[in-house]
Design brief:
alpha/beta; six-stranded mixed sheet; 14 helices; 33% helix; globular; FAD/NAD(P)-binding domain; eight-stranded mixed sheet; binds flavin-adenine dinucleotide; single chain; D-Amino Acid Oxidase, Chain A, domain 2
Length: 426
Amino acid sequence: MQNTTAESSVEQVDVAIIGAGPAGAAAAAWLARAGLRVRVLEQSQFPRFSIGESLLPQCMHYLDACGLLAAAEAGGFQYKDGAAFCWRDQTAAIQFTEKFSPGPGTTWQVPRADFDQRLIQGAQALGADVLFGCKVTDFTPDALHPQIRLVTAEGEEQQLQARFVLDASGYGRVLARLTGLACESVLESRCALFMHVEDRIDTADYDRNKILIGIHPQLPGVWYWLIPFSDGRASVGVVGDRATLEQAGLDDAERLWAMLRQEPRYAELLKNAVQVRDTGRLEGYSAAVKQLHGPGFALLGNAGEFLDPVFSSGVTIALHSGWLAAPLVQRQLQGETVDWQTAFEQPLRAGVDTFREFVLAWYDGRLPRIIFNERQPERIRSMISAVLAGYAWDASNPLVAASRRRLDVLAQSSIESPFDLTQAPA
Ligand code: FAD
């Protein structure tokens, strides 16, 4: 797999990929299957925990296209066919199979330690070379020979020269930081507290095939997730501004449980739950970059932009970016000129922009108002369902083509909705 030149002892590969999460695994699998020498550099040892456990059906297409669907399927993950919402005594459900866009209508809810390991093992089986415990520390951009500096699991400093580098380092945002591309997100800084529980849910009307998203009855800026897995465990979390969450208890575990007890549906569902993983906290996770590519490199998944967890778009965007970038890298290495702005950045951002509009409409109350409107025409429901199922790049969906304007109109026309815009945070 590896080459060294006579004049230099720097190891050489075709494509170096930083990070072995979903974005890195998807790109590695595609490129290795195409016969390129791919080296993935991953700082942790797998399996490793990651947040982001609810997938969207659009993911299945990318997994398939990258040759990873069978590897993921073997995990026996919890089937998922939609999203349920609750607020006070109101409930609503979005059924992904009844969506506007063509494509898969179901997916999974996955413990990411297992899911991510299966994906990267799938990439290895297709020929990708993966180094775990190996941290990328420096980078020299170059259109033909970008170079990486890394520290191996044994503490040894090494250099690696590639013909192209893909940064899939997630929250590490390695190249965005090292190349000065990182910038502020337009989204507010929020805080998430989360854990895994053995859920012991015995409520008859509870649908394990859907993520449950709840809105705090008095604090509309605070929302919850409940993502059941196939083994009787579930991921549970709360998102809000830091001050609100911190006043709820003395430590994060106490705060999370206290916030859960304030939402009647969650309090009821989780009354017998037993915590099986320490409470985690992530904050200020929304991040952006000025550009998603540079000389000899491109940014994938969270290493580029991360929006917000509310619609579970993170893994879908990560897989989409790997699936989109990989064939472009192959073409470039075959000698073609690739315009990364028009072939990668613009099309990737189109879907991210759609999700961003939905996230903004969630927090200012327009989207809850639309979702809790029982009289929403079926066709509108199917358009919303398509975006929430991850089909945010399908411009034939009017809610994708003109998201902001149409969300405005729908919110205004949802006069029957019990969710009043005045209840949304300022
Ligand atoms: P990651 O999965 O983060 O992988 C990046 C990898 O790079 C890691 O393994 C890391 O160890 C490695 N790395 C980092 N730095 C270096 C370095 N210097 N050298 C070598 N390796 C490095 N998304 C969903 O789809 N569904 C959800 O339900 C969901 N819930 C979320 C809830 C919260 C509270 C948050 C904050 C996010 C959530 N997300 C969700 C988003 C999701 O976590 C990410 O979008 C997704 O994991 C991104 O995948 P990735 O491949 O880009 O990066």
